[in-house]
Amino acid sequence: MYRSNTCGELRISDAGRKVTLAGWVQKVRKLGGMTFIDLRDRYGITQLVTEQAVEVGREWVIQVVGEVVERQAKNAKMPTGDIEVKIDTVTVLNKAQTPPFTIEEVSDGGEDIRAKYRYLDLRRAPLQRALALRHRLAQEIRTYLDGQGFMEIETPYLIKSTPEGARDFVVPSRMNPGEFYALPQSPQTFKQLLMVAGYDRYFQIVRCFRDEDLRADRQPEFTQIDCEMSFVEQEDVLNTFEGMMRSMFKNALGVDIPNPLPRMSWYDAMDNYGSDKPDVRFGMKIHEITDLVQGCGFSVFDSSAYIGAIAVEGCAEYTRKQIDELTEWVKRPQVGAKGLIYIKVAADGSIKSSVDKFYTPEQLKAVAERVEAKAGDLVLVLCGAKRKTQTQLGVLRIEMGGRLGLRDPKVFAPLWIVDFPLLEWDDETQRFYAMHHPFTAPKPEHEKWFYSDKKEDLERVCANAYDFVLNGTELGGGSIRIHNADMQSRMFEVLGISKEDAEYKFGFIINAFKFGAPPHGGLAFGFDRVCALFGGQETIRDYIAFPKNNQGRDVMIDSPSKIDQEQMDELFLQSTVKE
Amino acid sequence: MYRSNTCGELRISDAGRKVTLAGWVQKVRKLGGMTFIDLRDRYGITQLVTEQAVEVGREWVIQVVGEVVERQAKNAKMPTGDIEVKIDTVTVLNKAQTPPFTIEEVSDGGEDIRAKYRYLDLRRAPLQRALALRHRLAQEIRTYLDGQGFMEIETPYLIKSTPEGARDFVVPSRMNPGEFYALPQSPQTFKQLLMVAGYDRYFQIVRCFRDEDLRADRQPEFTQIDCEMSFVEQEDVLNTFEGMMRSMFKNALGVDIPNPLPRMSWYDAMDNYGSDKPDVRFGMKIHEITDLVQGCGFSVFDSSAYIGAIAVEGCAEYTRKQIDELTEWVKRPQVGAKGLIYIKVAADGSIKSSVDKFYTPEQLKAVAERVEAKAGDLVLVLCGAKRKTQTQLGVLRIEMGGRLGLRDPKVFAPLWIVDFPLLEWDDETQRFYAMHHPFTAPKPEHEKWFYSDKKEDLERVCANAYDFVLNGTELGGGSIRIHNADMQSRMFEVLGISKEDAEYKFGFIINAFKFGAPPHGGLAFGFDRVCALFGGQETIRDYIAFPKNNQGRDVMIDSPSKIDQEQMDELFLQSTVKE
Fold it and tell me: Out of A1, A207, A559, whose CB is closest to B160?
């Protein structure tokens, strides 16, 4: 061992001890005849001091032998700040070129250069903390699930391409010419087979792959906490996994989350927050005001199916310019509103609105009351089709919450969204689609509607499906699966999938289910996002050791890349790319 | 929850309790007016009894409510054998088709049908035990390594193809036309980068991929326990990982292995066991007898560089036919010996040999003494080039050990093999190759030879490399890496790799090392094989939930398979396979 101690552990009680440390040179300062060196490793920084002439540079790897002494000028900000190590001998283990950016809490390097030299960026404390948190969470998850009788079972990575869902990454097989494996988008099929096989409780922290056009903060490979349980109802699944989350919050962050967690129906989430992943760290709920404002001669409202509003606290003093900017903001294609109506409730209680001429102050006051606006608040109103308008209000709400500083990343407000609709009607194709997937079971109490032929009955069937939502982000979700062959047939019928089509697309799993499938259900969490949110960040990139960029490239290793013609030949492949 | 208890937990102390169980029907017996049902789940089997007429079949999934009662005829072999559950009500949760083979400890199904219906084979107790052991071991490994300060860090699966080593599986990139990712053969590069990045102690239980022509019991995807440490010497790595193995043996099997573990040099392993992965559960060591038998006129020996022998206990009475069969056995291409000489030491101490006419009884007795043959033992002699002959004797030794029942899979004899030669000379290409890989460091005390120009000096340089061997199988291995640029240049020079070549093949990692690489080393274990050996099996297939066959196919999901032309087009690929 090149060291007796790490750079993070020496304290005043070690004074007088002879120690050997090894690490990277963070900083060198000369002061009078003394040289001070900050020596860094994963565990911390220890100050070294010597009167000798030492030739070391930034990021050199050195080993020092010396004595722990009490510092004259202590540094209360550092755990090792009470001591320093008086150097006897220095051994240079490896010199280092000067890194292309500073290895500090905040680096001076741009994103591109840091991505190229990821192994240097990973030396910075924020990334070390991020990966340490990820490690801690992974261990907590496994410890909890192991304790609950879950078995970690590895499922294959080289599987079969399916025409459903997102695009698969495929892997040509040399030994089976012309054939391909696919990389899993999730182990969904295998985990359901493990339930058929009687494993009762399964989990895996597992890599998944999706060949999607990458949006910001999506990765072609990502990690899922994947779980499935047999002989359970929705209540059992929710209790088990909020238990898991509770232990993660407690043991990794020291945070207590409510017990039990709040649950909100999908309908309430849409109506009150305009989102199926509501951020409930703050109120500013959406209120429908259609009944209060229609029929008063304002044609925009009169021709809208739905009119809704939020009250933004303390913003009654917004200027014309600020309102105009907000109006432009909601009209951007990302939000898509036609326009924005405001009602200002001044500090003295007087009301001012962009639709003053259509409404009496009393009518506007009724709106303000409905949306729970107090003196000094700004009421923002959107109108149009119901769900679309609610969604726009939801986006506006998040924006205003952010502007008012109501979205503190260190505050955690987890909840379950439940009672999703089972089916979504698509006007264009005039058919129902499964909102979750075609194996999700309807709620037992809604089965009567599920077997009805009326569209309005089918539309109100709720699924035994659930999402875990934290601070406006969906961290995971799942469902109770259909385990009964008749119900599954009915599902295909409702979705307009013929017997032949069902057989072709899902035959393999349907067949397995004929040999005694237990009632089962499960869920999956996006582990990258769990880590980021636990760390108080919105982007996942810092929580992945070696992420890819938005073009799916790893710029550090320069991948993907061309392969030899010989390798192409062995795989019976020809490229059709024109050189 | 569909049950109050599992099928494995009810005991006599539960008698009188009303319980709800759910599971699969293992067996139905009618006896008089009574029906007995064995109900099975992952946790065990519970006997149900009823006077009602019940319609259930093998592998049906049922739920029963009933009372726990003491059995009249107890079954001491079952943990639940003291009780049975008297059925009040039975609910059929799912009917089942009759499975194509029996779901029993030993099934009546052949390998192919069981592979096709893997989800049914996985219901059998031996496979459930195998996967439960695998789960347990994975948890023990992580708990141990976490306790030792290792961080679990996930490395990417979509990486870059390298021209070295075995064949890569490649993944065409749709977003980067004409370019490919490769699936990792191991995270070697990434774990060394993590050391450069200062993560100090890294581990991962990670899938790896090799597109090899599959030999028996090889899988195209396999799982590695992958580890790396900084600021360590070989001694630190060995101590850390025999600690891990010790905790795995203790906590998963209740077995104590020696502390410290035996270590054997590669030279001793080859000389005494004819193998770099010796099975030390039994003796039967190889002894060189060249000096005792050369120069006596037997030309076969006189023209051999090396003559070696083993003493097979109690086999002096082998018949002519048995000896002939053994001779044929060693002459098979898999062993490759030219012939087999024997010396029988009869119970009365008299000596009989196939080379009687060349040697006096005293000379043969000296051989018998050298190989520690006692009265009643059979001495088997092979000759030829030294390492080749030792290897053949090693194979013969394993065979005879097996025949004599000396290879009990429930006996565990782990050890480290150390002091591997750094370099292997290849006569054909007249150059040295790295025995481990070109980043493995020579032992510090052998550096003087490493920098010598003499072939014989270079040949005796030992590496800081080590293998963990259990019962004749290499379960893992690793090395201390070169972290010094000058030493790395020297290594490339010795291997005859030009600067340009080194830059092309290894430039990326060499470059990273310029920014301050710490001394580091590590190792990797083959987790599939670890599980199999811990379970007392030689084949890994039962320890993988969904394995592939020898053609790399998953016959259950029928993968690999053809993909759509549309998908091919999107990937800019054309197949050259003639339809």
Answer: A559
Full pLDDT tens readout for chain B, 579 residues? 999 999 999 999 999 999 999 999 999 999 989 999 999 999 999 999 999 999 999 999 999 999 999 999 999 999 999 999 999 999 999 999 999 999 999 999 999 999 999 999 999 999 999 999 999 999 999 999 999 999 999 999 999 987 666 899 999 999 999 999 999 999 999 999 999 999 999 999 999 999 988 777 789 999 999 999 999 999 999 999 999 999 999 999 999 999 999 999 999 999 999 999 999 999 999 999 999 999 999 999 999 999 999 999 999 999 999 999 999 999 999 999 999 999 999 999 999 999 999 999 999 999 999 999 999 999 999 999 999 999 999 999 999 999 999 999 999 999 999 999 999 999 899 999 999 888 999 999 999 999 999 999 999 999 999 999 999 999 999 999 999 888 988 999 999 988 888 887 788 888 899 999 999 999 999 999 999 999 999 889 999 999 999 899 999 999 999 988 888 999 999 999 876
Domains of chain B: residue spans and CATH: 12-94 (2.40.50.140), 128-264+413-544 (3.30.930.10), 282-403 (3.30.1360.30)
pTM of the prediction?
Answer: 0.96
Chain B neighbors of A161, CB-CB under 8 A: 561, 563, 567
Q: B559 to chain A nearest CA, in Å?
A: 5
| Beta carbons of A176 and B569 less than 8 Å apart | no
Strand ranges for B313-464 from DSSP E: 341-345, 351-353, 378-384, 414-418, 423-426, 431-434
Shortest Cα–Cα distance, B221 to chain A (Å): 8
Task: Collect all residues of chain A within an 8 Å Cβ-Cβ radius of residue B172.
Answer: 170, 172
Put simply, the answer to whether B94 touches A517 (Cβ < 8 Å) is: yes
Mark yes or no for CB contact B175/A551 under 8 Å.
Answer: yes
Name the residue type at position B52: Q
The Cα A576–Cα B451 span in angstroms is 50
As beta bridge partners, residue B515 has A96
CA dihedral B276, B280, B282, B285 (to 10 degrees): 40
CA distance linking residue A140 with residue A142, whole number of Å = 5
Contact B545 A174 (CB under 8 A): no
Record: contact A564-B163, CB cut-off 8 A: yes
Please choose, from the candidates B527, B137, B46, B132, the residue with its C-alpha nearest in 3D space to the C-alpha of residue A200.
Answer: B132
ipTM metric: 0.95
* Alpha-carbon distance A441 to nearest alpha carbon in chain B (angstroms): 15
